[in-house]
Specification:
The protein has eleven helices and eleven strands. With 304 residues, the protein is α/β, with parallel strands linked by helices. It folds into two domains: 129 residues, Periplasmic binding protein-like II (D-Maltodextrin-Binding Protein, domain 2); 99 residues, D-Maltodextrin-Binding Protein, domain 2 (3-Layer(aba) Sandwich), CATH 3.40.190. The strands form two sheets. The chain has an eight-stranded mixed β-sheet, sandwiched between helices. The protein has a three-stranded antiparallel β-sheet with strand order 2-3-4. Strand 3 and strand 4 form a beta hairpin. Helix 4 crosses helix 10. The longest helix has 32 residues.
């Protein structure tokens, strides 16, 4: 009996110890699993880290996905122009877009590391096409104006044009803007010249009729035929058309205004705008711009 009692006395503490060890083991297991319980904070930390990484990646992607990057990736600068406005932009004998604007576009594209791809259309449709992202830029004698700056951006000017009054060779009655009163005056549709006639000349001079055209040659044909009394345009645009068609027309008086044209592009594309401005600045500095200008106009550009 004594021996059995002793055994019981020995086994009870041993069982208690084993139970405590088992409970401690379960506690350790639970703590691990709740690393497990500590896991939510670890998961949140990991999630925050992943989110930050994704955000950083997205920001980097967005930065690399601007219009300039897209143009370089495609290898093409899509250029909108009229294609009917010699010597600025027109179809040559090989049915290729040629002219001063075309050469400027090709040189800009070259300095961006891409090629120029031309899309010709009426002048009045060029800015809508730009806004619809059908083209990347317009290089087609788009005059820089405050009104246009509200909806598109411009590069630095790449040419200054002197605008004069054009009449038939036998017309001596129109030599100045004041002589427009009561006459029919032709002008390009959607051009700065149209805005100038409607907003500045009409209120000053008095009533006259404005007839709009989609291209210069048609307006000069109508002038030559006597269907309009005068038009306004710059002299560089007139000479090749007059020489080619034998129109009996002339420029009269002093220039009525001077316009500066720039490369037009959609707003909020600072990388592309800066790259175009740099290309133009470098072209002017290294003599490339002068070479192109002399090629098409037979004289050196005026000093800036």
């Amino acid at each position: 009996m004594l021996t059995l009692h002793k055994k019981k006395m020995f086994l009870l503490p041993l069982a208690a110890m084993l139970l405590m060890l088992a409970l401690a083991g379960c506690g350790a297991k639970n703590n691990n699993g709740n690393g497990g319980a500590a896991s939510p904070s670890g998961t949140a930390s990991a999630t925050a880290s992943a989110t930050a990484s994704a955000s950083s990646s997205a920001t980097g992607e967005a930065a690399g996905n601007n219009l300039l990057s897209q143009i370089k990736a495609a290898g093409v600068l899509k250029v909108g122009l009229m294609g009917t406005y010699a010597p600025y932009n027109f179809l040559n004998e090989n049915k290729e877009i040629d002219g001063f604007d075309a050469d400027i576009a090709k040189e800009i594209a070259k300095r961006l590391g891409v090629k120029a791809e031309f899309a010709a259309q009426d002048f009045s449709g060029l800015i809508p096409s730009l806004q619809a992202k059908k083209i990347d830029v317009i290089i087609s004698q788009v005059t820089i104006t405050d009104e246009r700056k509200k909806v598109i951006d411009f590069s630095q000017p790449y040419i200054t044009n002197q605008v004069k009054i054009i009449v038939r060779a036998n017309n001596d009655s129109i030599t100045k803007l004041e002589d427009f009163k009561g006459k029919k005056i032709g002008v390009g549709l959607g051009t700065n010249d149209e805005s100038y006639l409607r907003n500045e000349v009409l209120p000053k001079v008095g009533k006259f009729e404005i007839k709009t055209y989609d291209d210069v040659i048609t307006s000069l044909q109508d002038l030559n035929a006597g269907r309009i009394d005068a038009t306004i345009n710059n002299l560089y645009a007139l000479k090749p058309i007059i020489d080619k068609n034998g129109f009996k027309i002339k420029a009269v008086g002093e220039p009525i205004k001077s316009d500066q044209a720039g490369v037009a592009l959609r707003k909020d594309n600072p990388e592309l705008l800066a790259a175009i401005d740099k290309a133009l600045t470098d072209m002017k500095a290294d003599g490339t711009y002068k070479t192109i200008f002399v090629k098409w106009f037979g004289e050196e550009p005026a000093a800036e």
